[in-house]
Design brief:
149 residues, elongated, binds heme C, Four Helix Bundle (Hemerythrin (Met), subunit A), mainly alpha
Length: 149
C-alpha cells in the first residue's frame, strides 16, 4: 500500500479554492469529515497513553487520516464558508493564505503516509515518533486556521 500512496502523494496538486454551492451544507460536511479524523485519532491517543493497540489498528487509523486529509484539497474548504456561515470555525485567513493552508494539509498527508509505512513494519516501538508527528500536524493547522473553541 505504501508505494502507491507515496506516488499519489508525490503527484498531489493543491488546486485553487472553489466557490461553495451550498455553504451551510459544505460546513456541515467538512465538520463530519474532521470528526471522522478525530475518530481515527482516538486509537493513536490510546497508543500514546500506553494502552494496548496493535500496529494494524494504527495502520487503519493512518489510512483513514490520509484519505480524509487528501479530501481537504478536494473541495472540503470552498470559498464562502468562513466563520459566520452555519457554525463554521474556519478563519477567513484560510482563503487569504490558501497555499499555506494547503501546505498544512500536505504535511498531514505526509505524516499519515509515514505513520502507515512504519505501522506496516509491525514494530510498535518505532511508532511513537510518527504518531506524535500526525498529532502535531492536526494542531499546527488548527492553531492558525481554526477559531479557538
Ligand atoms: C489544513 C488544516 C487542518 C488540518 C491539517 C486539520 N484540521 Fe481539523 N479543522 C480545520 C479547520 C479550519 C476546522 C474548522 C472547520 C469548521 O468549523 O468548518 C477544523 C475542525 C476540526 C474539528 C471540529 C469539527 C466539528 O465538528 O466542528 C475536529 C474534531 C478536527 N478538526 C480534527 C482534526 C484532526 C484529528 C486532524 C488531524 C488528524 C485535523 N483536524 C487536521 C483545519 C485542519
Amino acid at each position: 500500500m505504501a508505494l502507491p500512496v507515496m506516488l499519489a502523494f508525490g503527484l498531489g496538486l493543491w488546486p485553487g479554492p472553489v466557490p461553495a454551492g451550498d455553504p451551510t451544507r459544505a460546513v456541515a460536511e467538512r465538520q463530519a469529515e474532521m470528526d471522522r479524523m478525530a475518530e481515527a485519532m482516538r486509537v493513536l491517543g490510546r497508543f500514546l497513553k500506553g494502552e494496548a493497540v496493535t500496529a494494524a489498528e494504527i495502520a487503519a487509523g493512518a489510512g483513514a487520516i490520509h484519505r480524509i486529509a487528501a479530501g481537504l484539497a478536494a473541495g472540503l474548504f470552498p470559498e464562502g464558508t468562513a466563520i459566520g456561515v452555519g457554525n463554521s470555525a474556519a478563519r477567513p485567513e484560510i482563503w487569504q493564505e490558501w497555499d499555506l493552508f494547503g501546505q498544512y494539509a500536505t504535511d498531514l498527508r505526509a505524516a499519515a503516509v509515514r505513520l502507515a509505512a512504519v505501522a506496516a513494519t509491525g514494530d510498535v516501538r518505532a511508532l511513537r515518533e510518527p504518531v506524535v508527528a500526525v498529532v502535531r500536524a492536526c494542531g499546527a493547522c488548527h492553531e492558525l486556521f481554526r477559531k479557538k473553541p
